[in-house]
Amino acid sequence: MEEKATRFSYVYQNLKERILTGQLQPGSRLSSSRKLCQEYQVGIRTINEVLDALKKEGLIKVEPRKAPVICQKGTVLEPEAAVLAVLAAEDDVRQVYQTMTLLLPQLLTFSSWNCPVEELPYYKKAMKVDRMGLEVGGWRAVSGLFQDVLHHSGNPLFADVYSAIELHGRANFFIEDQYPFTGLTLRTTSPMVTELIAMLKGPDPVQKYRKLTAMYENLASQVDSSLHLLRSSFPDCPTGGGSCFEWNPVRGRDHYYTRIVRDLVNKIGSGAYKPGSYLPREADLAKEYGVSVFTVRNALAQLGRLGFGKTYNVKGTMVTIPNDSTVLCTLQNQVSKQDTLLYIYALHFLSLAIGPSARLAAPLFTAEEIKELVHRFKDSAAIPLGDIYDLLLNHLQLEPLRTIFSELRRLVQWGYYFAFYRIKSGNIDKLNKKALEALQSLQNSDVTGFADGLSECYCLILDTVRQFVVEKYDLREALNLRIPKIVRS
């Protein structure tokens, strides 16, 4: 199996890169330890270990009862070195801004609905920037306000992916550091803060979506122009050596055995392993997943606790379906509760992001691939929506977007409720009907109808699962998520 990042390494590398790229300015303060725990979804021990490591490198200064201060030493890149670093990741940077244009208008339009913008933490800072102009560093207040809006959605994945996009898009460079080399700066071409706030507060979601899309398209175009000018000034700088886009919403909880559990549950839910049948032997599973037998045993033990398997001496592990008491017992475990919420957050994210992404990828589907998808609907035990998703993922040509969708897919596989509610209710028929209608739209060359149909599929799953876990298991945190309405541009 591929290498995994620990919680410590993820938070450490993320904060360090934000310091070294200038996204966190020398002299400014980090968020409090409590807020960092919330932002990175880790415990205080992990945050303290990260802060200790950054302090030893001289990147931060820790003061008693105060948030850590970013040290001047953090800005280690000379101006020309910063340019070379950007050009090394030139293709990656372009794709990040294209991904930003595709996703953020949708997420911000949804999140800003009925949002009390004036009450958000960064509102006053943003208004101060509006009075003084987007001076050096002022854009961070606007970025903070956008993150506040995304947090208002109730889905922490929105702000999390926004931070990753902003970091890998090297916003600090294009706003503050490129001017000596290109004569350009995004500070002079960005909308005024009052315009942005008016945009977010607008009552018409369609108009808001169009304005946000136009704003991000303009931003992507300006970054592209900057990269062309930089390339003409540094023609010999190699490209392709920059860091690729990364986003990891599970942050170190992604143990090898949990990956195996998710994959097995997904196969049980999709019918690959049927109830009453036996899983492959431990040695065969260890070879398949490239892990030790000990790791496989841990996975099978967790599978049993979730109610999806029962292990017998000699015979092996038989596939089972969890009953109500098993699920209720599982949800009393805080880790399982957080896993379930992550699953619901991923469904929520997909209900908004699948539409724009499908409009991008669907024109690349071949006639043979569409024909095979239609054939899948003849299998009563299949969930063709999963096959559609996999095909869409294969045709997404923006690597940052592929990364995001790959991670969301893993989170959806993590959610054993999909398989559970599928067995216990007739909603799978309704879901397959909607998925087939979406596919028929694509057969008729109606890409928009196909995209909107996929959005409706994930809205249906989200609504069903949310009601299921709230009514049956009192997981009331799920009520904070509003079911999206499709914004047709």
Automatic annotation (TrEMBL):
Q: Which Pfam families match?
A: GntR (PF00392)
What terms describe the molecular function in GO for this protein?
A: DNA binding; DNA-binding transcription factor activity
Q: Which InterPro entries match?
A: Tscrpt_reg_HTH_GntR (IPR000524), WH-like_DNA-bd_sf (IPR036388), WH_DNA-bd_sf (IPR036390)
Keywords noted in UniProt: DNA-binding, Transcription, Transcription regulation
SUPFAM superfamilies tied to this protein: Winged helix' DNA-binding domain (SSF46785)
The organism's lineage? Bacteria, Bacillati, Bacillota, Clostridia, Eubacteriales
This protein's record includes keyword Plastid? no
Query: Does DNA-binding count among this protein's keywords?
Result: yes
The record's PROSITE patterns line, in alphabetical order, gives: HTH_GNTR (PS50949)
What is the name listed in the Swiss-Prot or TrEMBL entry for this protein? GntR family transcriptional regulator
Ranges for the HTH gntR-type domain? 5-73, 254-322
* CDD domains reported for this sequence: WHTH_GntR
Q: Which domain of life is it from?
A: Bacteria
